[in-house]
Design a protein that fits this description.
single chain, 62 residues, alpha+beta, four-stranded antiparallel β-sheet, 1 helix
């Protein structure tokens, strides 16, 4: 798998983020500090909905 970090990841050492890897139907997500551990796999459409929700920053507000 080709793992990549978000361009928004910045933890000083660059190690406080998650990494993702894409396949035709799923997105795999893992902790960059523990890459040998298990990854979470979700469908690509579910991941897209999650990302759109995060972009709205629902925790900041109302």
């Amino acid at each position: 798998m080709n793992w990549r970090k978000s361009t928004y990841s910045d933890g000083g050492e660059g190690d406080t983020c998650v990494e993702i890897a894409e396949s035709a139907t799923h997105i795999a997500i893992r902790d960059s500090k523990a890459p040998a551990r298990a990854a979470l796999s979700v469908s690509a459409p579910s991941f897209a909905v999650f990302i759109e929700g995060v972009k709205q920053r629902p925790w900041q507000g109302a």
